Amino acid sequence: MGWMAWTLPTALFFAGIALLLVAMTVWQTVSPGRERKGFLPLTTSRGDRLFIGLLASAYGHLLVLALTDWPLWVATAICATGMAIIMKWG
User: Fold this and answer.
1) Most buried residue, 12, 61, 66, 84, by CB count within 10 Å?
2) One domain for residues 46 and 87
3) What is the span of the domain harbouring residue 53?
4) DSSP 3-state of 21
5) How large is the C-alpha radius of gyration of the chain?
6) Domain check: are 18 and 1 in the same one?
7) Phi, psi of 33 (to 5 degrees)
8) Distance CA 29, CA 8 (A)
9) Which residues have a Cβ under 8 Å from the Cβ of 10 and sit 6 or more positions away?
10) Where exactly are the transmembrane stretches of this chain (predicted)?
11) CA angle 35, 15, 50 (to 5 degrees)
12) Sign of torsion, CA 81 5 9 87?
């Protein structure tokens, strides 16, 4: 594991993703969801929307880093808002 720079932000990021996956698993076990059609062009479950939101957030961060000089917290705020929208209405 010496190949990766395990800084506090990196560890918090991966811990957050792990906690999110555990929380979604518990939520699905306690209250099974159903597939539904939102603004996304396909029928999705909670897990599908989570995966799509995580991918969109990753690409959003990469686009902000590549095309702007904005601080990373701006990209994080935009992506968190986008993730909430996808999870709620996606």
Assistant:
1) 61
2) yes
3) 35-90
4) helix
5) 15
6) yes
7) -90, 175
8) 31
9) 4
10) 6-27, 48-66, 72-89
11) 15
12) positive
How far, rounded to the nearest angstrom, does the alpha carbon of residue 26 sit from its chain's CA centroid? 17
* Total count of domains within the chain: 2
Q: pLDDT tens digits, residue range 37-67?
A: 999 899 999 989 999 999 999 999 999 989 9
- Spatial distance between the Cα atoms of 76 and 6, rounded to a whole number of angstroms: 19
Q: For residues 10 and 53, state if they share a domain.
A: no
Residues 6+ apart with CB under 8 A from 74: 64
**Beta pairing, strands 36-37 & 43-44:** antiparallel
The residue whose two tokens read 């918090």 is 12
pLDDT, one tens digit per residue, over 5-33 is: 778 877 888 898 999 999 999 998 998 88
Q: Two tokens at 76? A: 């994080």
Q: What are phi and psi of 56, to 5 degrees?
A: -60, -40
Q: What's 42-82 look like in SS3? A: CEECHHHHHHHHHHHHHHHHHHHHHHCCCCHHHHHHHHHHH
